[in-house]
Design a protein that fits this description.
Length: about 240
């Protein structure tokens, strides 16, 4: 259940678990679950890939050939993602994932996630998410997104790092600034859903490093949330 009575914080680790060693990769993913929970986040979000290629990804864009190696190093099988999801359930943190292939959309259904994160690059292809678990948490940085009952829009900017300040026109904010001030400002002005990238070790972050927070910075944002009064009850619950 996504409870937006207070600001809901998604800690995105993305592909920080990427490693050529399969055992180390799985262990690192578990470590990120524990770190996000300890920091105080409501959810952790991974990027999930099966066999990312120009043919299998419905949202391939120019430059992905340079990202493809990292995506392959982050790949895990559905059985491993089940174990990661079970660890999230055990620790009391919600498991979320961004997906870019029809196969991994099916995985989200199998994993019984409470929501589906739709990255900005995938937002023009919402038809692929017809049967994905709802609500859809859709970032709008690369396309205009029409609001509807099964969508929660996260305002964002496609640039990494970004300079976008939350406008207040959307319920959510996906912050790629690489600092704490934009997210805290949005939170203090009533934003109900905030996504930030984070890392426990800067060497894990890869190309997302300039847009990511250190673990102490993530903790700072979560501490700020805990200091805020409760927001009015939201209709966006699932």
């Amino acid at each position: 259940m996504l409870n937006l009575d207070t600001c809901f914080i998604i800690a995105e680790s993305g592909t920080c678990h990427a490693d050529h060693n399969h055992i180390r990769k799985f262990g690192r993913a578990l470590e990120y679950v524990h770190a996000a929970k300890k920091a105080g986040a409501n959810a952790i979000k991974f990027q999930m890939f099966d066999d990312p290629t120009k043919e299998t990804m419905f949202c391939w864009i120019d430059g992905d050939e340079n990202r493809n190696h990292r995506w392959h190093e982050s790949r895990m099988g559905l059985d491993q993602w089940h174990l990661i999801k079970q660890e999230c359930d055990r620790y009391g943190i919600i498991f979320l994932a961004s997906v870019f292939e029809n196969e991994t959309i099916k995985w989200l259904i199998d994993l019984n996630v409470v929501a589906t994160k739709v990255a900005s690059r995938a937002a023009p292809y919402l038809g692929h998410f017809r049967f994905a678990p709802k609500p859809l948490l859709v970032s709008n940085g690369m396309t205009e997104v029409t609001d509807r009952d099964d969508i929660i829009i996260l305002e964002c900017e496609a640039n990494y790092p970004s300079t976008l300040k939350w406008s207040g026109n959307f319920p959510g904010f996906s912050d790629h600034s690489g600092g704490t001030s934009m997210a805290i400002d949005a939170m203090n002005r009533g934003c109900k859903l905030i996504e930030v990238h984070f890392y426990t070790d800067p060497s894990h972050a890869g190309p997302d490093l300039p847009a990511s927070l250190s673990l102490p910075e993530l903790e700072m944002i979560c501490d700020n949330k805990n200091a805020l009064p409760d927001l009015p009850v939201s209709q966006h619950q699932a």
